[in-house]
Amino acid sequence: MPRSSHGGRHELGQNFLTHRRTISRIAELVADSPGPILEIGSGDGALTRELARLDRPLVAIDVDEHRVRRLARALPGVEVRRADALHHPLDAPSIVGNIPFHLTTPILRRLLSTGTWEHAVLLTQWEVARKRAGVGGGTMMTAQAAPWFTTSLVQRVPAQHFVPRPSVDGGVLQIRRRPEPLLPASRRSPYDRFVRAVFTGRGGTLDRILARAAGAGPAQARRALQEAGVPRGGLPRDVGPEQWAALFRGLHG
């Protein structure tokens, strides 16, 4: 395979999934949601071939022009494009992909802030998948997306199921857009700032952090915590999706 103008597999961060059972499982998850599919990082097409069997409109994108050309010849029924996931429109109802590990965070940020997609199944680094699913406590990115998306951890994918073998395991992450968001889309920017202020704020106890983050009085912060069902001595990572939305409503109206 000739070297891409973007670099070799090392520069592109490509670790191709070879485990047939995991490939089939990802395709099964995508099959649960109807409509056209956009595959990110199609590579040599192991997952693309499985998705093509769903007999739905399928666009597969990759930055490696040589693999794009070869896959387009092999799968004439699939629209294979040379494109970058950081710039290509995320407008298909279903998004699926084996995400280059070094691009996981920027792709996830873009996915959770743009596009009209409804359902995403992503293969990422294991620790990233755990964090985004809130296993062991929520992160700032997870909390910022929570009013609009639900995230679940599907399975772990051992490193030996990739070629070349990465230094860490992978994880299958499933994200769905909430049919009824917990907050209106018009409040997303102030909500994002609120969550960031809480995660990065100081004050010792959560009520003091909240008061500073929202510019509210201590009594109002304590009342918001009580109404949201959040312990005063808790930590931001322990706050659930519905609780984040309730805290924002209680402190920002």
UniProtKB/TrEMBL annotation:
Gene3D superfamilies: Vaccinia Virus protein VP39
Keywords attached to this entry: Methyltransferase, RNA-binding, S-adenosyl-L-methionine, Transferase
Keyword RNA-binding in record: yes
Residues reported in the UniProt entry to bind S-adenosyl-L-methionine: N15, L17, G41, D62, D84, N98
GO biological process: methylation
GO MF annotation list: methyltransferase activity
Pfam families noted in UniProt: RrnaAD
InterPro entries (UniProt xref): KsgA/Erm (IPR001737), rRNA_Ade_methylase_Trfase_N (IPR020598), SAM-dependent_MTases_sf (IPR029063)
Superkingdom assignment: Bacteria
Domain Ribosomal RNA adenine methylase transferase N-terminal positions: 22-179
Keyword field contains Lyase: no
Family under the similarity heading: Belongs to the class I-like SAM-binding methyltransferase superfamily. rRNA adenine N(6)-methyltransferase family.
Annotated protein name in UniProt: 23S ribosomal RNA methyltransferase Erm
Lineage: Bacteria, Bacillati, Actinomycetota, Actinomycetes, Micrococcales
